[in-house]
Amino acid sequence: MAIIKKSRREIELMRAAGRLVHEILTAIRAAVRVGTTTQELDAIAEEMIRSAGAEALFKGQTTPQAKAPYPSAICTSVNEEVVHGIPGPRRLREGDIISVDVGVRLAGYCGDAATTIPVGGISPQVRRLLEVTERALHIAVEQTRPGRRWGEVAWQIQRYVEGAGFSIVRDFVGHGIGREMHEDPKVPNFVDRRGKAQDTRLEPGLVLAVEPMVNMGTAKVKYAEDGRGWTVVTQDGKWAAHFEHTIAVTEGGADVLTDGR
Predict the structure, then answer these.
(1) Where are the alpha helices (DSSP H) in the chain?
(2) DSSP conformation class of 90
(3) Exposure pattern of 152-178 as b/e (b: 16+ CB <10 Å)?
(4) What is the DSSP string of 216-254?
(5) 17 domain-assigned
(6) For residue 82, which of 186, 230, 245, 195 has the smallest C-alpha distance?
(7) Within-domain flag for 251
(8) Residue 185, preceding peptide bond in cis (omega within 30° of 0)
(9) Fewest 10 Å CB contacts: which of 87, 154, 236, 257?
(10) Is 142 domain-assigned?
(11) What is the domain-level CATH number for residue 107?
(12) 225-237 b/e with 16+ CB inside 10 Å = b?
């Protein structure tokens, strides 16, 4: 792995990008209501990114599975959709949940964060899903400090989520981030004994996009049957949540760069 550590100056530039991401997510949260389309949420992000002189990281991305480049500024994943949902004419309904993922590049540096938003009133079980997933992200922040290995943090995430009766997605993980959206190392939310030799030691200057993806049922996922090769859904159709922060490792622990400071 070619891990690129960031200087204090670079971390502050990434905080500026993270601040824009936070502002976009705040505006989108305020706009989420029954009847709103996911395309309308994307338009809010597009305008805010353009006005800031930034770049939408997701737009134009490609993968081996995708039939065409990603067309939108944000990802909007509703209910059983885990990640990479494409905004469109779908209208949100009472009781839905929507995971919104935002990534930008500002002044050459990236910020990336996600949150899951309830639409009106949601069931107690779904509310618990959101609470557990967000708490899993907070555990990652609390447990991140220099000298530890990421696997120690991932185990704390996994133990908490599975202890609450939910499952951790294994097919998609977090990542290093800096000038590019995806840098080394990979940042799983679970412990894979086969990957112990590649476990990352946390050191000051390392910046990670940490993003627990939690399902109500099985951890197994698949691509939606829409032929586009982007939207990832749960294999059993049960609902999922996704929370993410960009986090810098410092001498004192974790510094969250996407919390709006």
Answers:
(1) 8-31, 38-51, 124-143, 150-163
(2) P
(3) ebbebbbebbeeeebbbbeebbbbbbb
(4) SS-S-EEE-TTSSS--EEETT---EEE-BEEEEEETTEE
(5) yes
(6) 230
(7) yes
(8) yes
(9) 236
(10) yes
(11) 3.90.230.10
(12) eeebbbbbbbeee
- Give the domain extent around 104: 8-256
Question: How many residues comprise the chain?
Answer: 261
DSSP, res 137: H
Residue 138's alpha-carbon distances to 132, 145, 153, 206, in angstroms, are: 10, 13, 11, 18
Asked whether the beta carbons of 110 and 57 are under 8 A apart, the reply is: yes
Q: How far apart (Å, rounded) are the C-alpha atoms in residues 152 and 129?
A: 23
Residue 256 CA to residue 254 CA, distance in Å, equals 6
pLDDT tens across the length of the chain (261 residues): 689 999 999 999 999 999 999 999 999 999 999 999 999 999 999 999 999 999 999 999 999 999 999 999 999 999 999 999 999 999 999 999 999 999 999 999 999 999 999 999 999 999 999 999 999 999 999 999 999 999 999 999 999 999 999 999 999 999 999 999 999 999 999 997 665 656 899 999 999 999 999 999 999 999 999 999 999 999 999 999 999 999 999 999 999 999 999
Amino acid sitting at position 100: V
**Cβ neighbour number for residue 89 with a 10 Å cutoff:** 8
Domain presence at residue 261: no
> Residue 8 corresponds to which amino acid?
R
